[in-house]
C-alpha cells in the first residue's frame, strides 16, 4: 500500500491514473493489443471499461477535504 498526500490542492474537477512500475523502467509496460502488463488504477473504477476511461469517465469533483482509495488492477 502507498499513501500520497497532496496539500493545498485547489477545489475543482480532477482525474487520477496510477500504475505500479514493477521493473522500474519509468513506463507502463503493455502486452499484445496495448493491454497493461503492470498493475494500474483510476480515480473512478474502470472495471467496466475495456479501454482506459476518458477524463469525464474517471473524474471527480474535489470540493472538500477527502480521502480517495484507488485499487490497482492487473489484467
What does this structure look like?
The protein has 75 residues and is mainly beta. The chain has one domain (1-75). Helix content is 5%, strand content 19%. It is built from one helix and four strands, in the order E-E-E-H-E. Strands 1-4 form a two-stranded antiparallel ribbon. It is globular and about 40 Å long. The mean pLDDT is 88.
Looking at this protein, list some descriptive labels:
1 helix, two-stranded antiparallel ribbon, mainly beta, 75 residues
Short characterization:
The protein has one helix at 55-58; strands at residues 12-15, 17-19, 40-42, 59-62. The protein has 75 residues and is mostly beta strands. It has a two-stranded antiparallel ribbon with strand order 1-4.
Helix proportion: under 10%
Briefly note the structural class of the backbone.
mainly beta
Mean pLDDT metric: 88
Q: How far from one another are the termini? A: 19 Å
Major beta sheet, specifics? Answer: 2 strands, antiparallel
Read across the widest sheet, the strand sequence of neighbours is 1-4
Task: Specify the overall morphology.
Answer: globular
- Our count of domains comes out at 1
**Beta-strand fraction estimate:** 15-25%
What is the count of helical runs? 1
H and E string = EEEHE
Please report the total strand number as a whole number. Answer: 4
Amino acid at each position: 500500500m502507498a499513501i500520497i498526500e497532496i496539500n493545498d490542492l485547489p477545489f475543482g474537477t480532477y482525474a487520477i491514473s496510477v500504475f505500479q512500475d514493477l521493473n522500474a523502467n519509468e513506463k507502463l509496460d503493455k502486452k499484445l493489443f496495448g493491454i497493461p502488463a503492470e498493475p494500474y488504477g483510476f480515480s473512478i473504477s474502470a472495471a467496466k471499461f475495456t479501454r482506459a476511461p476518458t477524463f469525464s469517465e474517471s473524474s471527480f469533483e474535489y470540493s472538500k477535504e477527502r480521502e480517495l482509495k484507488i485499487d490497482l488492477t492487473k489484467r
